[in-house]
Amino acid sequence: MNNDNGYTVDLPAKPGNDQRAVQINGTPMQMAMQTAEAGDAVFAVGTIMLPNDDEATQRAALDFLRTGLARNVGAAPNARAVQIPLAAGGQVLGLEMKLSGEAGSQHESRTVYARLVARGRHVYQAAIIASKPMQQEQVDQFFSSFQLY
Hints:
CATH class: Alpha Beta
CATH topology: Protein Transport Mog1p, Chain A
Order of helices and strands: EEEEHEEEEHE
Distance between the termini: 10 Å
């Protein structure tokens, strides 16, 4: 449970916490990250606290995350609509991505599975970054455990 950022998720190991500054449309914001490694994959949830809950601000942050993930592996930023569960019941509309390509200076093969969603003043990025494609069951288990408050 991450009460500060309003979500629950099942991670495969004790998570590490990190924070970094991001610039979205020229506005500095903070992105909090929880990451856990298991096998050849990193499981992560990133949360950006927005200055307001305007739809345009949410959309800009979602676009920032979507294009950033795609750029990291040299892929097109294609996404499809998906329902993200709420812990109290119900769902909100989000985006789902599966990207494959090469990452880093070593041009290592990476597959990225991600869900992006905005809720209020938060934008979330739940992602798995793996060195090879994962079994769909593992991907589904992680994403079905990701619920917003």
